[in-house]
Amino acid sequence: RGMSSVTIPPPACMLRPLEAPFRYLFGPGPSNVPPRVLAAGGRPIIGHMHSEMFGIMNDIKKGIQYAFQTSNNMTLAMSGSGHTAMECAVFNIVEPGESVLVAINGIWGERVAEIAERMGAKVHTLVKAPGGHFTNAEIEQALAKHKPVLFFLTHGESSSGLVHPVDGVGDICHKYNCLLLVDSVASLGAAPLLMDQQNIDILYTGSQKALNAPPGTAPISFSERACHKMFNRKTKPVSYLLDMTHLSNYWGNDGKPQRIYHHTGPVSGFFALRESLAILAETGLENSWKHHTEVAEYLWKGLEDLGLKLPSVTTIAIPEGYNWKELLAYIMKHHQIEFTGGLGPSVGMVLRIGLMGYNCNKANAAMALAALEDALKQCRKSKA
Ligand code: PMP
Would you say residue 383 has pLDDT above 70? Predict the structure, then answer.
């Protein structure tokens, strides 16, 4: 008939219903999503350019300003996971050939260094073993030496379980005419961070950790200083999708009367993100920090943790003589609980237990401890 016929049959798996088991997500994220946030994400969608959607985006912007403690106008949520925000920050701030300094003490610095390298930046690194701290003096020395336009630091290093101090770093950066970029994907809502007071120029987080929204959106904010650099560049950012001139218009941040179509935002993801930011606003940031610390301390009492003090994600040394993969598999199979191993440089060194937001309570901490204890009894000590 001229029209070719279908030669690939419908796959058998597609004729079966979706199966997604219940799991206790006590790893470093995603975390379990509270019913209220799931319900928000399950509401009938509206158009991404409807006025009601812009109203919801305006609410999200206010919710992020509260969560970040910033009055930055250039505040929005990325359509995409935490990595989208990492790339957005680097691509918009840095031009090819410019110098970037990255603090690496776990996987997240490694990733940002690679992102910056791929877009043609001159990347310099300050490296410590996973869990290591950088002193402000070390940071200052490196800034003086490399004269970067951007310095990256991870606040909650989820691959090592470290919460890194940020006080004073912004001021040092500004002394050297450098912008400070901070990753708070794993720490936002769990450990104190104050964007404006701590002079952070670019801050981002993810939806799926202490905020307890489904993965897929990522709050980000830019200071006036950061805006000045990114909106006065000579070259266009390498990514069209992540270009802040477009995104600032889409989020109504550029002062123009009209929002112009750029891409179709994740409508359901934004509904869920709005709800999770509403929960944080109702709870209060200080209560949220205090609560995460109390539950983490309760967990730490039952464990020999590494003492790195990230309240959302606790790292413990792999118990002597055990195979970590076997422990994790046992706990998943018999307790329906996800813990995880290390990531990047911490693989094979640690186990990680995350109790964030909705999952953050003593009953869950007790359940996590009991599951680990059971696994240590039941799993064979390996020869290795
Ligand atoms: N930074 C940190 C500190 C993280 O913990 C994560 C997620 N594990 C990311 C960045 C990346 O986020 P995503 O997986 O949402 O892209």
Answer: no
Pairing relationship of beta strands 150-154 and 337-338 according to DSSP bridges: unpaired
Is residue 293 located within the same domain as residue 311?
yes
Instruction: Tell whether 50 and 183 lie within a shared domain.
Output: yes
Domain end, chosen from 243, 264, 280, is at 280
Q: What is the pLDDT of residue 3?
A: 74
Number of domains in the chain: 2
Same domain, 364 and 268: no
* Mean pLDDT of the residues in the chain: 96
Distance CA 186, CA 155 (A): 8
Whether 348 and 193 have beta carbons less than 8 Å apart is answered as no
82 touches ligand 1 (CB under 6 Å): yes
End-to-end alpha carbon distance in the chain? 67
- Compute how many other C-beta atoms are within 10 angstroms of the C-beta atom of residue 321: 12
Whether 135 is in a domain gets the answer yes
Is any ligand 1 atom within 6 A of the Cβ of residue 237? Answer: no
What average pLDDT does this structure show over 325-343? Answer: 97
Q: Does position 381 have pLDDT exceeding 80, yes or no?
A: no
Read out DSSP for 41-102?
Answer: HTSPP--TTSHHHHHHHHHHHHHHHHHHT---SEEEEEES-HHHHHHHHHHHHPPTT-EEEE
Instruction: Examine the pLDDT at 384 and tell me if it is beyond 50.
Output: no
Ligand 1 mean position, distance from CA 186 (Å): 7
Mutate to test the pocket of ligand 1, among 183, 185, 212 (most ligand atoms within 8 A of CB): 185
Last residue of a domain, one of 280, 302, 336: 280
Write down the residue that tokens 């910033």 correspond to.
70
- 12 CA distance to ligand 1 middle (Å): 34
Angle between helices 362-378 and 324-335 (to 10 degrees): 120
Domain extent, residue 320, equals 24-31+285-378
Q: For residue 202, what are its two tokens? A: 């670019």
What is the ipTM for the molecules in this complex? 0.99
* Type of residue at 79: S
Is 263 found in the same domain as 321? no
In three-state secondary structure terms, 217 is strand
Q: Whose CA is nearest to atom 11 of ligand 1?
A: 82
